[in-house]
Structure prediction request, 448 residues.
Amino acid sequence: MDMEKMVNLCKQYGFIFQGSEIYGGLANTWDYGPLGSRLKNNVKDAWRKKFIQERDNAYELDADILMHPMVWKASGHVDSFADPLIDCRECKTRHRADNLINDFSNSSIGDAMTNEEMIRYINENKVPCPKCGKTNFTDIRQFKLMFETYRGVTQDSKSVVYLRPENAQGEYVNFLNVQRSMRAKLPFSIGQIGKAFRNEITPGNFTFRTIEFEQMEYQTFCKKGDDMNLYEYFKQYGKKFYMDLGIKEEHLRFHDHEKLAHYAKAACDIEYKFPFGWGEVNGTHNRTDFDLTRHQEYSGVKQEYLDPDTNTKYIPYIIESTYGLDRTVLALLFEAYEVVDDREVLKLHPYLAPYKVAVLPLIKKNHSEKAKEIYQLLSKNFMTNYDEAGNIGKRYRRNDVIGTPFCVTIDDETINNNTVTIRERDTMEQTTINVSELVDYIEKRIKF
Ligand SMILES: [Zn+2]
Prediction:
């Protein structure tokens, strides 16, 4: 399945639409349709279950997108969060200098270069413009990635606020609030699902790179010395999470970073094998005590933890593990799509499927009344699809391609004996069961 086909499938069946489509679209923005938003919410619920509910000492947070501008001073974003951009003088296209070098050398050497090194490399190797093939570039300019806006009525530097470029700072500035209110002991974790914004100019690969995106973030606060064990633990936990969601192990890999951000002691991505190549879906970082130390310095508020075991105070280390929600959804769509004997099937984990069950009257005029009764029963328990249009084969096909794991057919037997035929998406096996067992039957099979 290539990207173009996926974009079309997502549009056709209501998963994902181009943002502001009737106005020609706004580049790198996408809207989740009725099925896409269900899928996305189910991924969030799955994450919540594995990262908040099933783990000890884990707390969810829902921080505001707008934060005090000093937060972004302390985090370093105001001063250094920028892309090195370079323009082709011949065809006027704009590129990221590091990507240009990485693509040319088929490596990641560009990541570790300074602007001067990149310019030298491009000139020495005559790196061509991917668009026109010539080598005639401008100097590198740093392009700010944070969206700025203003609060109040005046547009001056005092009233600047930023749309957050990551969720993490919301967790960091609430470290003490959560620790005290929950009487939390180290190690403990704060997780958050929320939107972040980056003014990226680089092309998107559908929802892989967008200017507005959603992250599922997880920050674990720990004692120095426990940090590397937890770092390893969350790498593996993340990989297992993706496999539990239904991704095959051979479509996942770890990518350890050679070049580390100034704050990081260790960093690793989990990558998924997309049709355009391996792409990051999770990043796990050992951020040391950098973040809380900086916030202590900039806010003047002590960010120390009083260790009840040793009666000493210290600033905790942080292990961050961030999941790109939009990228995870995209990976799951690619992973789930299969064509079996020209039958298109989206083999999503039943927990993730937008609809858990479809109710299909075999013959509309004979069975739809009974079918609506059963629809009412099921929709109290699950997202249920009701479909009475067209022949039964076509309705099965349509539910297969949107990932509905169970189809319940209502026929004369239902009216006479209160039984239904339940068909499984993946095996097409059909079982006859009593209506009274229906809810239980489905419930057991959609657990995560
Ligand atoms: Zn060019």
